[in-house]
C-alpha cells in the first residue's frame, strides 16, 4: 500500500507540474500559485466542514503551517533559478530534495534492506537523469545553484512536514486545509509586493480576469492535484518506511517528462529515457525489497 500511495503521489505531482508549467507560459507564476491554491482552499474547506475535521485541531497543525510557508518560498526560488538557467542543470538539482525526507526517515529509525538501499540509489539517479541534465559544461551562475538548492531543501522539507501534521484521515484534511490557507496568504503577499514593484498579475496578451476565468478548470486541476499528492504522500509515509515513500513519491519528474512527450510531442533526450528506465528499475527494487 505504501508503494501504491507513493507512486500515486508521483503521478499527481508530475501532472500538476506539467499543468502548472503550461499555465506559467501565459500567466505569472505567482498568479498560478495563488489562484490554484485558492480553489484548493475552497474545496478543502468544504471537506473539513462536512467531516467535522476542525475537532482534530491540535499542536501538530504547526507542521502544516510551516509546510504552507516553506512551499511558496521553495517554488519561487525554483522559478527564479529556472529563469537564470540552464534548465538542464536546475531541474535535476531541484529533485534532490528527496534527501530531506529520506534523512528524516533514517533518523527516526527506518532501516531499509540492502535491496531497498540499492533501489533508493538507482531511483534517485533515475530522477536526476530524467530531468535531462546538461552534461557538457553548460555555464551555471552560482546564484542559480544556490537558489536551486534552497528550492530542493524546501520541497523536501514540505514532504517531511506534511507527513507529521496529522495522524488520522480527517486530521489530514484539516492539515492540508491549513497548509493551503498559509500558501495563499504567503503567495498572495508575494504577488502584492511584486505588483507594487512593477510586476504583473495578469497576462500580457490581454484578457485580464476573463483569461483567468477561462483557464479556471486547468488552474483548479493544478491546485487539487497538488493537494491530493500531499495527501497520498502523508498516508504513504504514515503506513510504511518514510525512506521508501519519499523516493517513490519523488519520481514525478519522470511523469512530467512523459506527459510532455505524450501531449506536446516533445522528444525525450537519450539521458532522459535512460533516467526513466533507471527510475522504473529503482521502483521495482523498492517495491520488492
Describe this structure in words.
The structure is a single chain. By secondary structure, the protein is mostly helical. It is 77% helix and 0% strand. The chain contains 13 helices and no strands. It has helices at residues 2-23, 29-51, 61-84, 87-94, 99-107, 114-130, 142-163, 169-196, 208-214, 216-239, 242-249, 252-263, 270-288. α1 packs across α12 (252-263), α5 packs across α7 (142-163) and α10 (216-239) runs antiparallel to α11 (242-249). The chain is globular and about 55 Å long. The chain starts with a helix and ends with a helix. 51% of the residues are buried. The model has no long low-confidence stretch (mean pLDDT 82).
Break the fold down into its secondary structure elements and pairings.
Layout lengths: L1 H22 L5 H23 L9 H24 L2 H8 L4 H9 L6 H17 L11 H22 L5 H28 L11 H7 L1 H24 L2 H8 L2 H12 L6 H19 L1
Helix pairs in contact: 1-10, 1-11, 1-12, 2-8, 2-10, 3-4, 3-7, 3-8, 4-7, 5-7, 5-11, 6-11, 6-12, 6-13, 8-10, 10-11
Distance between the termini: 14 Å
Major beta-sheet overview: none
Name the helix and strand elements from N-terminus to C-terminus, one letter apiece: HHHHHHHHHHHHH
**Mean pLDDT across residues:** 82
What's the β-strand tally?
0
Compute the number of helices: 13
Q: What are the segments in which pLDDT stays under 50 over at least 5 consecutive residues?
A: none
Structural class: mainly alpha
**Radius of gyration, Cα only, in angstroms?**
18 Å
Helix content: over 70%
Shape field: globular
**Percentage beta strand:** under 5%
Amino acid at each position: 500500500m505504501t508503494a501504491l500511495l507513493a507512486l500515486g503521489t508521483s503521478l499527481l505531482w508530475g501532472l500538476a507540474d506539467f499543468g502548472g508549467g503550461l499555465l506559467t507560459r501565459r500567466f505569472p507564476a505567482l498568479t498560478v500559485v495563488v489562484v490554484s491554491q485558492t480553489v484548493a482552499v475552497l474545496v478543502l474547506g468544504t471537506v473539513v466542514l462536512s467531516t467535522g475535521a476542525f475537532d482534530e485541531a491540535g499542536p501538530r497543525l504547526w507542521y502544516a503551517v510551516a509546510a504552507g510557508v516553506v512551499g511558496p518560498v521553495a517554488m519561487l526560488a525554483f522559478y527564479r533559478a529556472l529563469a537564470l538557467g540552464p534548465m538542464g542543470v536546475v531541474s535535476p538539482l531541484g529533485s534532490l530534495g528527496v534527501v530531506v525526507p529520506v534523512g528524516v526517515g533514517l533518523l527516526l529509525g527506518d532501516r531499509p534492506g540492502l535491496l531497498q538501499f540499492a533501489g533508493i540509489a538507482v531511483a534517485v539517479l533515475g530522477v536526476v537523469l530524467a530531468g535531462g541534465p546538461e552534461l557538457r559544461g553548460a555555464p551555471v551562475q552560482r546564484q542559480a545553484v544556490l537558489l536551486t538548492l534552497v528550492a530542493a531543501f524546501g520541497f523536501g522539507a514540505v514532504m517531511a512536514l506534511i507527513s507529521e501534521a496529522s495522524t488520522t484521515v480527517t486530521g489530514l484534511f484539516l492539515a492540508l486545509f491549513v497548509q493551503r490557507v498559509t500558501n495563499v496568504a504567503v503567495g498572495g503577499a508575494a504577488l502584492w509586493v511584486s505588483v507594487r514593484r512593477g510586476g504583473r498579475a495578469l497576462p500580457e496578451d490581454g484578457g485580464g480576469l476573463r483569461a483567468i476565468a477561462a483557464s479556471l478548470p486547468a488552474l483548479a486541476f493544478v491546485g487539487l492535484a497538488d493537494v491530493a499528492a500531499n495527501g497520498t504522500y502523508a498516508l504513504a509515509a504514515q503506513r510504511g518506511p518514510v525512506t521508501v515513500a519519499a523516493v517513490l513519491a519523488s519520481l514525478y519528474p519522470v511523469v512530467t517528462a512523459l506527459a510532455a512527450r505524450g501531449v506536446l510531442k516533445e522528444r525525450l533526450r537519450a539521458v532522459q529515457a535512460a533516467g526513466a528506465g533507471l527510475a522504473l528499475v529503482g521502483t521495482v527494487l523498492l517495491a520488492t525489497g
